[in-house]
Amino acid sequence: STRTTTPEPEATDVFSAQRVSTHRDGDDLLTGGLGRDALLNPVAPAVADAAHPTAAELRRRALHANWRGIADLYGTVKTIPTVPGREFHAYTTLPGARQPHRLLVQIPDGFDAAKRCLIVTASSGSRGVYGAIGSVSAYGLPRGCAVAHTDKGTGTGFFDIASGEGVQADGTRAARSTALEFDPGTTAAAGETRIAIKHAHSGDNPEADWGRHVLQAARFGLQSLDEAFPQQAPFTAANTRIIAFGLSNGGGAVLRAGEQDADGLLD
């Protein structure tokens, strides 16, 4: 991409495909109800119908994969608390970008309204939006903080070019006529089988904008807190401690956000 990456005031953020999911009673924010023992099992959680997995089944598999990819479950991680709460999901697209990035805000039921805390993070590597679950969420949620995630334009976001199907915001498969995480806009020739993935084939240069992705996640985090606790709104940078943290290139995204934070969002 030749698009400029000079920091500039953002236009009003547009958050699409917004939805809220509740995770309690055998489900939770950190493990989807799997617990540490199931995470130790290298075999991913089973699905009832492999051809039509549910959104809840796909979420548990994503949590399983991302915990095992980052956390030292066999060593330092001895316990994983059960943290009930809500998840706020959305897409947003930077001006000039072709594809959206995914946003996720996890708000625990034990959110400490007396010490408002929002931790903002970006997934490491090429991981999807749950990429920081075993590091940032595991730290922040049990301490009463909300955690805002961005996939920073990475993640798989598979698109089956032969069938014209991709991934919806809840992880399930759908035709390109619906709001998909990624659509390359191409079609396959007769008999051709190809799969496109967002980080490799988006046509954008997401690395150039990782800092801006993190700042958008912070703003979506504040909006989500307003929605979760309307009687205590507004949540702003003036009354909420906003901490940014990331591992590997997620940490690089956080550092870039700090450089571009002209509005003083981050503490």
Question: Could you explain the architecture of this structure?
Answer:
The protein is an alpha+beta fold and 267 residues long. Helices cover 24% and strands 18% of the residues. The protein has helices at residues 35-40, 55-70, 133-140, 198-201, 210-228, 249-260, and strands at residues 16-23, 85-92, 101-108, 117-122, 146-150, 159-160, 165-167, 173-175, 195-196, 241-244. The strands form three sheets. Strands 1-2-3-5-4-10 form a six-stranded mixed β-sheet, with helices on both faces. A two-stranded antiparallel ribbon has the order 6-9. A hairpin with a 5-residue loop joins strand 7 and strand 8 (173-175). The relative contact order is 0.17. The model is unreliable at 1-9 (pLDDT under 50).
What structural keywords apply?
267 residues; alpha+beta; six-stranded mixed β-sheet; two-stranded antiparallel ribbon; 24% helix; globular
Strand and helix layout:
Layout: E1 16-23, H1 35-40, H2 55-70, E2 85-92, E3 101-108, E4 117-122, H3 133-140, E5 146-150, E6 159-160, E7 165-167, E8 173-175, E9 195-196, H4 198-201, H5 210-228, E10 241-244, H6 249-260
Parallel strand pairs: 4-5, 4-10
Antiparallel strand pairs: 1-2, 2-3, 3-5, 6-9, 7-8
Helix pairs in contact: 5-6
For the sheet with most strands, the description reads: 6 strands, mixed
Spans of at least 5 consecutive residues whose pLDDT stays below 50 are 1-9
Structural class: alpha+beta
Portion in helices: 10-25%
SSE string, helix = H, strand = E?
A: EHHEEEHEEEEEHHEH
Percentage of residues in DSSP E strands: 15-25%
Radius of gyration over alpha carbons? 18 Å
Arithmetic mean of pLDDT = 92
Our measurement of the CA-to-CA distance between the termini, rounded to an integer number of angstroms, reads 31 Å
Spatial strand order of the main sheet: 1-2-3-5-4-10
Record field, number of beta strands:
10
Q: Name the shape in a single word.
A: globular
Separate helix tally: 6
